[in-house]
Amino acid sequence: MPLGLLVLAIAVLACLPVLQGYRGRQAVDMDALCTTLVRLSELAWVCRDELVELEINPLALSEGRLVALDARGLVRTPQ
After folding, report:
1. Strand intervals (E) in the chain
2. Mind listing the pLDDT tens digit for each residue in 63-75?
3. How far apart are CA 76 and CA 79, in angstroms?
4. pTM of this prediction?
5. How far is residue 36's CA from residue 60's CA, in Å, rounded to a whole number?
């Protein structure tokens, strides 16, 4: 996904106010978020023959960094 399209996709999310710093919380670094999502999509593309699914939940902002607090990947077993 082109970066500009990704930025537009994020802009229409219902959770955008949370990403922008809801109720006094620190705003997410949108450049870091977009970079992380692009890198994850690149990883998924490179591993597309083996990777069945990849889940990161939650992806949290901690001390100005994005941190995957939990992740799970499912890969195909060789036949």
Report:
1. 51-56, 59-62, 65-68, 71-75
2. 767 889 999 999 9
3. 9
4. 0.78
5. 12
What lies within 8 Å, CB to CB, of 3 at 6+ separation is: 34, 38
**Residue 42: band (very low, low, confident or very high) from pLDDT cuts 50, 70, 90:** very high
Region of 42 on the Ramachandran plot (φ > 0 left; ψ -120 to 50 alpha; else beta): alpha
Q: Quick one: how far is CA 32 from the chain centroid?
A: 9
Residue 18: CA count within 13 A, CB half-sphere: 7
Q: Which residues contact 44 (CB under 8 A, 6 or more apart)?
A: 51, 54
Element (H, E) at 9: helix 3-11
